[in-house]
Design goal:
One of its GO terms (biological process) is positive regulation of transcription by RNA polymerase II. The protein has helices spanning 2-18, 24-44, 50-53, 67-76, 84-103, 116-119. It has 133 residues and is mostly helical. It has a domain at 23-115. The protein is extended and about 70 Å long.
């Protein structure tokens, strides 16, 4: 019985050690990916009307210092206030901006300040599939 209890305690300790809370960086990274995906879905959805087409392009790279200005501009964009999906997306962008400038201010490292890279992102090439014969 003691062996079983000690084994359970050991397994519980191992689970708690692996269940660390998310870091500031991981939260910013996941939220930026979520926003980028939501923006892509919004552009291709049936709800995309003329105002959605006029929204500023939203490609987020949290390692680029210009992402802060990009988020500010997107949140302040005056059109599409009545489209629910756009309002939700703006709220997520506002949250990301707040996290980046206040909570994670000291934890983030910007590797570049190339604003044009956010306007015209260079995406990694797609590897051709290997055909086995």
């Amino acid at each position: 019985m003691k062996t079983l209890l000690s084994l359970m305690a050991l397994l519980s300790a191992a689970l708690f050690a692996n269940a660390a809370p998310p870091t500031c960086y991981s939260r910013v990274l996941s939220l930026s990916k979520e926003i980028t995906e939501s923006f892509k879905e919004l552009q291709t959805s049936k709800a995309a009307d003329s105002c959605v087409e006029t929204l500023p392009r939203l490609y987020l790279d949290i390692h680029n210092y210009c992402v802060l200005a990009k988020l500010r501009d997107f949140v302040a964009y005056p059109r599409c206030e009545r489209v629910l999906e756009v309002s939700e997306l703006k709220e997520k962008a506002r949250s990301l901006y707040t996290i980046m400038i206040s909570y994670c201010r000291r934890d983030l490292v910007f590797l570049t300040d190339d604003c044009s890279a956010l306007e015209n992102p260079v995406l990694p090439p797609i590897e051709p599939s290997i055909i086995e014969s």
